[in-house]
C-alpha cells in the first residue's frame, strides 16, 4: 500500500478554521522548557527544518470532524464489515504531524534532551525499505526491525537501497547487516544464579533490568531518558508506562527509592517534552499512551518523600490531564475527539485511542495479516489495533465485537473501566496538588470533575444484574458483557460504593478465581489477555481493592494462589515470567501456552515488583508456599525478616489506600509536616541513629508551603535475623575461627 507523504497529508486549513463544532484547533508542539527543572543539563532544542519525505508506509488520512455515534442504535454485528460508523475516525491530529517533522542534529554526544530527533516512526522514515525488510522475513521478531538503528539518515539509506535492490547480486539481509545496528537480547542474564532464592533473584534482577541514562543516537527510535530506569525484560528493552508503576512497587519494597524516583523523573521528562507519556520511550509509541498511572506513581513516591512531590510535579500532572482531555471542552454531545467522548447527556468519559491508523511498527506483519482476514476498512482496523495496544491488554475479548475474532476489534468504540477510573484519580490528584499550592479555585474545579466522572463510572459501567463493572460501547449505548479483572479497578482506586464492591467480590470469586489466581477474563480465545492467563498487575489491583473494602480473606486467598503459581514456576524454571496459566492444575516451567503475538517473556518487571509486595504483605502464606518449593527458598544471601516480625497483615504498603495524602480539608493543608506525610511502615527503624535518605539532587524539590522542609521517611533497615538464622551465623563463625586457629 502506498500513500501520500506524511508532510503533505496532515496540514489542512479545516483544522485551523474549526468549521465543525467540537473540532480542536492545531495543538502546539510540547516544548522541553520544563525539563530544566528535572535535570540541570537539559536545554531547549532549536527548531529543526522539515523532514524530507521518503516513500512511506501507509500514512494516516487528513484530520476529520469529530467522530459521532449518530445513527448507531444497534450493536455492530461480527459479520458487518461496513466502516460507516468510523468513516470519519481516520485522522492523525496535527500535533502528531508536527512531531514527525522534526529532524535530528547532524552530530551526537550532547545531552539526550538537548538535541532534536527524527520523531517519525521507522515505518514512515524508512518507508518502502521498512516494508521490504519485513517482507523478506529477516527477523523472527518484528519489533527488532523497529528497534534497529540506521547508520545514516533514512532518506539517504532508502535512496541507496533503491539504487542497489534490482542488481543481480543484491542481498537485502547483507544490506541490513551492514547498515543497521541490531539490538541483542541477552536472556541468559535473567536465569537464576546458583544458590539464589526467589527474594535474592528479584533483588538481583533490578541491576539486570536497569538501563543507564541514555546517550542520544542519531536515527534511533529510542527516546533518550535523563535518568536510570527499569525495563520489563525480554523483547521489551525500553521503559513502559503502566508497567513502571507495578515495577515501582517492588523498588519501594526493596528500598530502592533512588531508582523509583529516577523513573518518575524519566516519565515526567517525557510528558514535558511530548505533552504526554508515550506507550514507551520509542518514536513509534509517540502516537499513543497507556493507562495513565502517573498520578498513582506520585502517590507511591509521596508516601516516602512527602506531599511536596505533588507540587513538584504539578506541571506534568497538568500536561497529562490536558492530553487526555484534548478536545473535550468543544465537543457536542454524542461526539468524540481523540480520547474524549461526550455522551448524549453531556457526560464526559474516556476511550482508548491512537493518533495513527497504519500497521504498528513493532507488529507490522501481524497487522497486515489481520487486515487480510477481513473485508473491513484497513485503516479503521489498524486504528483499533493500535488503540488496543494502548490499553496494555493487547489483545483481549474485551475489545472484540464478536468476543473471539481479532479483526472485529472495536477498541475506539469503548469506554474502558481503567481509563475512566485512572482519570478520576488524575483529577483528584490535580485537585490535591492545586490545594497544596494555594489555588483553591482550581482545586475545587478538578474535584468537581472527579466526582462527576466517578458518578458516571458507577452509572454507565456498572451492571447490577451481573454484579460487576464492564466496558461500555458509547456508539451502541450498551455494555460489552465481557467480565474481566478490570472490574476490581474501581475498588483499587476507592471509587466504588460498598454495596457494589461487595457484589464485585462475589463475582470475582465465582467466575474468575482458579487454582493459580484470577484469570483476566472468563473467555478462552487464544489471546494473551484472556483465560487461562493471569497477569501480575491485575492480581495486585484486585487484591488491594478487595482489602480496601474489607474482603481480607478473599484477597489473601488470591494472593496465596498467585504466589504459589509464580513461585512454583520459578522452582521449575529459575525465572519470573510476564504472565501465567492460572487454570491448569499442573505448573508448567514455561508459564503455560501464553498466547498472543510473541513468545513468553522473562524478567519480568511487574511480576517481580508485585510478587515482592505480596510476599511482604502475606508472610505466613509466603512461608507455606516456600515450604513446598525448597529450591525457591534456599538460604538467602541477605538477611530475611522472620515471619513473626510482622503482624497478621504484614507491613503497610501505601498505595491507593485511604490516607491523609488525599481528601484532606483545605484548612488542614498548612499544619505541621507530620500531618502531611504517611507514617513509616511498621517495621521501619526509628531513632537518631537512622541516616536520612534525602531526595536525589537531580530533582530539586521546593520547601513545603509552610516554609519548613518536608519530612522524609528514613530508609528501612533489614529486620533482625530469626533464631534459626542466628544459629546458622554462629556455626559459620565457629567454622571460620577453627580454620583460622583463632579462639
From TrEMBL:
Stretches with biased composition (Pro residues)? 47-65, 711-723
Signal peptide residues are none
Q: Where is the composition biased (Basic and acidic residues)?
A: 670-684
GO biological process per UniProt = trehalose catabolic process
Q: Where is the composition biased (Polar residues)?
A: 31-44
Renumbered to this chain, the Low complexity biased-composition regions fall at 724-743
Q: Which InterPro entries match?
A: 6-hairpin_glycosidase_sf, 6hp_glycosidase-like_sf, Glyco_hydro_37, Glyco_hydro_37_CS
* PROSITE patterns from the UniProt entry: TREHALASE_1, TREHALASE_2
Q: Which GO terms describe its molecular function?
A: alpha,alpha-trehalase activity
Keywords carried by this UniProt record: Glycosidase, Hydrolase
Extract the Pfam families matched here: Trehalase
Which portions of the sequence form the region Disordered?
A: 1-91, 629-743
Q: State the name under which the record lists this protein.
A: Trehalase
Organism this protein belongs to: Acetobacter tropicalis
The taxonomy runs: Bacteria, Pseudomonadati, Pseudomonadota, Alphaproteobacteria, Acetobacterales
Amino acid at each position: 500500500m502506498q500513500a501520500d507523504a506524511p508532510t503533505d497529508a496532515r496540514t489542512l486549513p479545516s483544522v485551523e478554521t474549526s468549521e465543525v463544532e467540537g473540532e480542536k484547533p492545531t495543538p502546539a508542539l510540547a516544548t522541553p522548557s520544563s525539563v530544566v527543572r528535572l535535570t540541570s543539563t537539559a536545554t531547549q532544542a532549536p527548531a529543526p527544518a522539515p523532514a524530507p519525505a521518503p516513500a512511506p508506509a501507509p500514512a494516516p488520512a487528513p484530520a476529520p470532524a469529530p467522530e459521532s455515534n449518530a445513527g448507531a442504535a444497534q450493536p455492530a454485528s461480527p459479520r458487518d464489515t461496513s466502516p460507516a460508523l468510523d468513516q470519519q475516525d481516520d485522522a492523525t491530529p496535527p500535533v502528531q504531524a508536527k512531531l514527525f517533522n522534526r529532524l535530528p542534529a547532524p552530530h551526537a554526544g550532547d545531552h539526550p534532551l538537548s538535541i532534536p530527533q527524527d520523531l517519525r516512526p521507522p515505518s514512515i522514515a524508512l518507508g518502502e525499505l521498512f516494508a521490504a525488510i519485513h517482507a523478506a522475513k529477516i527477523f523472527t521478531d518484528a519489533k527488532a526491525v523497529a528497534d534497529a538503528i540506521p547508520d545514516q539518515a533514512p532518506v539517504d539509506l532508502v535512496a541507496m537501497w533503491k539504487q542497489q535492490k534490482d542488481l543481480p547480486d543484491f542481498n537485502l539481509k547483507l544490506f541490513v547487516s551492514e547498515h543497521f545496528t541490531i539490538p541483542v537480547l541477552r536472556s541468559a542474564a535473567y536465569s537464576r544464579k546458583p544458590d539464589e532464592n526467589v527474594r535474592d533473584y528479584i533483588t538481583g534482577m533490578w541491576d539486570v533490568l536497569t538501563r543507564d541514562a541514555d546517550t542520544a543516537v542519531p536515527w534511533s527510535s529510542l527516546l533518550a531518558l535523563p535518568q536510570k530506569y527499569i525495563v520489563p525484560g525480554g523483547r521489551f528493552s525500553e521503559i513502559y508506562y503502566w508497567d513502571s508503576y507495578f515495577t515501582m512497587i517492588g523498588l519501594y519494597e526493596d528500598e530502592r527509592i533512588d531508582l523509583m524516583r529516577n523513573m518518575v523523573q524519566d516519565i515526567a521528562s517525557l510528558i514535558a517534552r511530548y505533552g504526554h507519556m508515550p506507550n514507551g520511550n520509542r518514536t513509534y509509541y509517540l502516537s499513543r499512551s497507556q493507562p495513565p498511572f502517573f498520578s498513582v506513581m506520585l502517590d507511591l513516591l509521596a508516601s516516602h518523600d512527602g506531599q511536596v512531590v505533588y507540587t513538584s510535579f504539578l506541571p506534568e500532572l497538568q500536561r497529562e490531564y490536558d492530553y487526555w482531555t484534548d478536545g473535550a471542552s468543544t465537543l457536542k454531545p454524542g461526539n468524540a475527539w481523540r480520547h474524549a467522548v461526550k455522551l448524549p447527556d453531556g457526560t464526559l468519559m474516556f476511550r482508548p485511542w491512537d493518533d495513527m491508523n497504519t500497521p504498528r511498527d513493532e507488529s507490522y506483519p501481524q497487522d497486515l495479516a489481520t487486515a487480510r482476514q477481513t473485508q473491513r476498512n484497513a485503516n479503521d482496523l489498524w486504528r483499533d489495533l493500535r488503540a488496543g495496544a494502548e490499553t496494555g491488554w493487547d489483545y483481549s475479548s474485551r475489545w472484540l465485537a464478536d468476543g473471539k475474532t481479532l479483526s472485529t476489534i472495536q477498541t475506539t468504540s469503548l469506554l474502558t473501566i481503567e481509563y475512566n477510573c485512572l482519570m478520576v484519580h488524575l483529577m483528584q490528584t490535580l485537585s490535591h496538588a492545586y490545594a497544596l499550592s494555594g489555588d483553591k479555585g482550581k482545586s475545587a474545579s478538578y474535584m468537581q470533575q472527579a466526582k462527576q466522572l466517578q458518578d458516571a463510572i458507577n452509572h454507565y459501567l456498572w451492571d447490577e444484574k451481573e454484579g460487576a463493572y464492564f466496558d461500555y460501547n458509547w456508539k451502541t449505548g450498551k455494555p460489552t458483557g465481557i467480565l474481566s479483572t478490570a472490574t476490581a479497578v474501581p475498588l483499587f482506586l476507592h471509587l466504588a460504593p460498598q454495596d457494589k464492591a461487595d457484589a464485585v467480590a462475589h463475582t470475582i470469586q465465582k467466575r474468575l478465581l482458579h487454582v493459580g489466581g484470577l484469570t483476566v477474563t472468563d473467555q478462552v480465545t487464544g489471546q494473551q489477555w484472556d483465560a487461562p492467563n493471569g497477569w501480575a498487575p491485575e492480581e495486585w489491583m484486585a487484591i488491594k481493592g478487595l482489602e480496601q473494602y474489607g474482603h481480607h480473606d478473599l484477597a489473601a486467598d488470591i494472593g496465596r494462589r498467585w504466589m504459589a503459581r509464580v513461585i512454583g514456576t520459578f522452582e521449575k524454571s529459575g525465572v519470573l515470567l510476564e504472565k501465567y496459566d492460572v487454570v491448569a492444575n499442573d505448573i508448567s516451567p514455561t508459564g503455560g501456552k501464553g498466547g498472543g503475538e510473541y513468545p513468553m517473556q522473562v524478567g519480568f518487571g511487574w511480576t517481580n515488583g508485585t510478587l515482592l509486595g505480596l510476599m511482604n504483605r502475606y508472610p505466613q502464606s509466603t512461608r507455606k508456599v516456600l515450604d513446598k518449593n525448597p529450591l525457591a527458598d534456599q538460604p538467602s544471601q541477605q538477611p530475611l525478616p522472620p515471619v513473626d516480625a510482622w503482624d497478621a497483615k504484614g507491613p503497610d504498603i501505601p498505595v491507593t489506600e485511604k490516607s491523609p495524602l488525599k481528601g484532606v480539608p483545605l484548612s488542614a493543608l498548612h499544619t505541621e509536616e507530620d500531618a502531611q506525610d504517611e507514617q513509616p511502615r511498621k517495621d521501619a527503624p526509628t531513632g537518631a541513629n537512622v541516616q536520612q535518605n534525602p531526595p536525589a539532587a537531580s530533582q530539586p524539590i521546593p520547601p513545603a508551603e509552610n516554609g519548613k522542609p518536608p519530612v522524609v521517611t528514613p530508609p528501612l533497615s533489614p529486620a533482625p535475623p530469626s533464631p534459626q538464622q542466628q544459629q546458622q551465623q554462629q556455626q559459620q563463625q565457629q567454622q571460620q575461627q577453627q580454620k583460622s586457629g583463632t579462639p
